Amino acid sequence: MALCSNFRCVAGYLVVLWSVSLYANGCYTSIINFGDSLSDTGNIKHLGIITNQSFPSMFLPYGQTFFHKPTGRFSDGRLIIDFLAESLGLPLIPPYMREDSGYVAEFEHGMNYAVAGATTLSSQLLADEGIHNLVTNASFEVQLKWFKESLPSICGVASADCRNKIGHSLILVGEIGGNDYYCLMHNGKSINEIKSLVPLVVKTIVSTINELIGIGAQTLVVPGVLPLGCSADHLTIAQGSKNEEYDPTTSCLIWLNQLAEYHNQLLQKELNHIRELHSNVNIIYADYYNATMQIYRFPYKYGFINESLKTCCGGGGPFNYNSTAPCGDEYATVCDEPYTYVNWDGVHFTEAAYKVIFEGLFQGPYTTPTFKSSCPLSSVVKVGKSSSY
What we know:
It is a single chain. It is built from 13 helices and ten strands. By secondary structure, the chain is an alpha/beta fold.
C-alpha cells in the first residue's frame, strides 16, 4: 500500500482535527428525537416508499427552499431540530427508517424516530375511542420500541457504555400530543370529550420520560403543544363560528388554544414532579406555545408581512387551505416568498417561522430552565448545508 505524501498527511490530519473540534463545540455528542411531523426528518417518506404509500412531503414543493428536493420534512426547508443540530455543531440528524434497508443501524451523532402523524396514545387506545389514525401507527410507544431495539447498535454490548452514550445525548421528547387532539376533533369528539383525555396523553409522555431516564438519559427537552387554535386547518373547519370564539388580537380560536394551554399546564406540573424524583437529571420544558404565539402577535416584527394565518402553499379559501387540494396537489398553488409567511401548508410552518421558534426556544426565554444558560449555542456553524438528510 502506497504511503501518502507529507503534504497530504498533514492536510488529512488537519481535516480530522477540524472535524473533531467541530463536533466538540456543542454541549452534546448526539441528538435523539421522538415526535411527529414537526420534527420528522424523513421517516414518513421512507415508510411511504417501503409500504408503497404516498405522503405530501415526498414531493415538491416540500423541501424547495433549503434542500431543493423533498426530504420528507413537512416544510419548505429546515425544522427546529435541524437548526438545533446546526447550532450544536452536529450534522443534521438522520431518520431511523431508510428505504434501502428498512431500519437504519448507523448512529454517530444521533437518530430521529419521529414520524409524521404520530400520536402519543397507542393505536389500540385510540381505537377504543373509535379513532383510527390513517397516517401511521408509529405512536410514541412504537418509537420507544424502535429506540430500544437500536440500543445494541448505538451502544455496543456494554451497558455502562450505553448509559454513558445516552447520558451525553440531548434527548427531545416531542413535540407530540397535537395529533391526538387533531384525530379526536376530526372524528367528531366534543371539546369536553377531548379534554377528558388530556391527562392520559400527558401520563403517556411522562411514562416515556421515566423509561428514558431509566436507560440513562441525563438531559431531556420536553415540548408542550402548539397553539392549536391558530392552525389554518382548524380555522377552516371552524368557519362560521361566533365572533367571540376568536382572539381579537390574533384571530385564533380561543377554545382550541385553551385546550393546548390545559395540556401544557398539566405537562409542566408532571415535569416538576419528575425533577423532584430525579434531581440529577436536567428536565427542560420547551414552551412551543408561547414561542409560536410571539409570531402570531407580532408577525411584522419577524418579517412575516403576509397574513400570519394564511398558508403559503394550499388550495384556496380564506386561509388558502383546502383539504381536497392540499399543498403538493396539482390544484394547489405555492407562494413566491415563503419567508414572508408563517404557515406553510395549513398545519406546518415555513422554514423562516421554524427558525424564529427555534431562536425563541434555544437562544431565548422560552425554555425552563433556559437552554442557553446550560449550553451556549453557536450562531455561526452551518453544518446542515453539507448534509443529505
